[in-house]
C-alpha cells in the first residue's frame, strides 16, 4: 500500500472514552482529519444492529478499534465470561459492519497477553499460537487472537485493508485506578500515594515482585497507532512496545521515588504473579520507522501529576 492519507478522512475511534481511545483522539486532533465519536448511549458495541446502524449513518473512511473490556490480573481471572464475550462481540460487530459498509481501512488493537506464557523473550510476532496461554488471562487473549484472525480473514476473503497492533502493558491519563480491576501501575500509584499520605510504614504488593513487565505510555501508543494507520498494510500484526522491561519490585520503587514514599513493600504471595515475563520484540516497528519516546520515569511522573489533579473524580479512589 502506498500509504493511507488521513487528510479530510472521517476516522471513527471506537472506545474514545477509554484510556487508549482518548489518547488516539488527542493524537488525531493534530492531523487534518475529521474525528468521529459516538455520543454516550448512542451505540452499544456488543449489539450488531446498533453497530451496523452507527457505521451506516456515520460512514467513516477508517476505524480504530480501541474499544474493549480490559482490566488487570484479578479482573481477568475472576470475570472470564465478560472478558471473552464482550471482547468477541465488540470486535466481531465492528469488523463485520465495517466490511458491510465498505469501510476499507481499520486498525484493531490487541494486547501482549496474546502470546504463550513461556514464549521466548523478547517476544516476536511469530510467537503467536506456538504454546499454551497464561491461565489468568486466556479468556481475554483468545478474544484478542480472534480479532487478529478476523482482520486477516476479511483481508484474505474480501481484500479489506484491516491491520492489527498489539500494545504491551499501557498506562497514562484516563487509566483505571480502581484497586480491584486496575493494572499494576495505577494500582501501585494509588497504594503508594495513600501510604505516603497516611504515614503507613508498608505497602502491600501482589505476588512475588519478580515478574517482569514492559510499560508503554498511552501517548506513545496512540502515536504508534496513527503511524500504523498511515503507513502499514499487511496480514501480520505488529508489536507496539518499548523493548524495555522492569520487575514489579523495580516498578514499585520507581513510583515510590516519584511520590516521595520511603516505606517498605510487603509481597502478598497469595495473589497471582501471572506470566513471569512479558517483553515485546519491537524490531518490526523500528524497521518501519517508529519507536516509543517517553521513558518510564518521565511517564510515571506525568501520570502521577494527572492522578493528583483528577483523583477526586476517579472511580474507586478515596
Ligand atoms: O498489570 P497486571 O494486573 O496484569 O499485573 P498482567 C502485573 C503484575 O503486577 C502481576 C503484580 O504479577 C501482579 O501480581 N501486582 C502487584 C499487581 N501489585 C498489584 C496490584 O496492586 N494490582 C495489580 N493489578 N497487579 C494483564 C492481563 O496481565 O495485562 C490482561 O490480565 C492484559 O489481559 C494486561 O493483557 C495488559 O500484566 O499480569
Overview of the structural elements:
- This protein has 318 residues and is an alpha/beta fold.
- It has a domain at 10-175 and 215-244 and 278-294: Rossmann fold (3-Layer(aba) Sandwich), CATH 3.40.50.
- Helix content is 41%, strand content 15%.
- It has ten helices and 13 strands.
- It has helices at residues 19-28, 48-58, 73-78, 80-100, 138-158, 184-198, 218-231, 248-259, 283-288, 296-310, and strands spanning 10-14, 34-36, 62-65, 105-109, 161-167, 169-171, 202-206, 212-213, 215-217, 238-240, 246-247, 264-268, 277-278.
- The strands form four sheets. A six-stranded parallel sheet has the order 2-1-3-4-5-10, sandwiched between helices.
- It is globular, with a radius of gyration of 19 Å.
- The termini are far apart.
- Guanosine-5'-diphosphate-beta-L-fucopyranose is lined by residues 72-74, 76, 111, 113, 136-137, 140, 169, 182-184, 187-188, 205-207, 211, 213, 248, 271-275.
CATH superfamily of the domain at 10-175 and 215-244 and 278-294: NAD(P)-binding Rossmann-like Domain
Please give the number of β-strands: 13
Hetero ligands: guanosine-5'-diphosphate-beta-L-fucopyranose
Low-pLDDT ranges: none
What structural class should be given to the helix and strand makeup? Answer: alpha/beta
Compute the average pLDDT. 97
Q: What fold name stands as the CATH topology of the domain at 10-175 and 215-244 and 278-294?
A: Rossmann fold
The sequence of SSEs as H and E is EHEHEHHEHEEHEEEHEEHEEHH
Named at the architecture level, the CATH assignment of the domain at 10-175 and 215-244 and 278-294 is 3-Layer(aba) Sandwich
Q: Radius of gyration, Cα only, in angstroms?
A: 19 Å
State the helical fraction.
Answer: 40-55%
What's the story with the biggest beta sheet? 6 strands, parallel
CATH class of the domain at 10-175 and 215-244 and 278-294: Alpha Beta
Q: Indicate the overall shape.
A: globular
Number of helices: 10
Q: How far from one another are the termini?
A: 50 Å
Biggest sheet: strand arrangement: 2-1-3-4-5-10
| Beta-strand proportion | 15-25%
